[in-house]
Specification:
By secondary structure, this protein is an alpha+beta fold. The chain has two domains: about 5-80, Ubiquitin-like (UB roll) (Roll); about 90-155, DNA polymerase, domain 1, CATH 1.10.150. Helices cover about 30% and strands about 15% of the residues. Strands 2-1-5-3-4 form a five-stranded mixed beta sheet, with helices on both faces. The longest helix is centred in the last third of the chain and has 14 residues, at about 105-120. It is globular. The termini are far apart.
């Protein structure tokens, strides 16, 4: 017999609730109960970053986080980054710089890059490279990803870059 609990949290800016089992992971909750397929399932072990989300303002691998831990928290997925005008600056930069290849790892990569730029708008290429180490990609070689992140940092810069 499976025991379900009800959790309430904020998802991409709106209050939601869900009934979950005690061992359900946040990744499963987002994809199966809320239909948010942008958060990808890849390794299931927290090694690749494809499932990166934001929890109370910090990035987290959703494949490692129990859904019960969402209770009372603020969760943002790749779908929550969009602005009223469409894609946010990081999303746009990834497209403009050709950083999106197969696209599978990109939601997690964009979530991490957006987090890094939010904490350091003048992020250097080297800082971006270190900050994205937990996000693996088999297609891009990272050069275009770093070009995209660097371009957003230049746009946010005070003009001394």
């Amino acid at each position: 017999m499976s025991v379900e609990i009800e959790i309430r949290f904020t998802l991409n800016g709106r209050p939601v609730s869900a009934r979950i089992g005690p061992t359900m992971k946040t990744l499963t909750l987002l994809r199966e109960q809320f239909g948010l397929s942008g958060t990808k399932y890849a390794c299931g072990e927290g090694e690749c970053g494809a499932c990166t989300i934001r929890v109370d303002g910090k990035t987290q691998n959703s494949c490692l986080m129990f859904a019960a831990d969402c209770d009372g928290r603020e969760i943002v997925t790749i779908e929550g980054l969009k602005t009223p005008a469409g894609m946010n600056p990081v999303q746009k930069a990834f497209v403009e710089h050709g950083a999106v290849q197969c696209g599978f790892c990109m939601p997690g990569m964009i979530m991490q890059a957006d987090y890094l730029l939010g904490n350091n708008p003048q992020l250097t290429r080297q800082e971006a490279q270190r900050g994205l180490e937990g996000n693996l990609c088999r297609c891009t070689g990272y050069t275009k990803v770093l070009d995209a992140v660097e371009s957003v940092a230049r746009q946010k810069c005070c003009g001394q870059c």
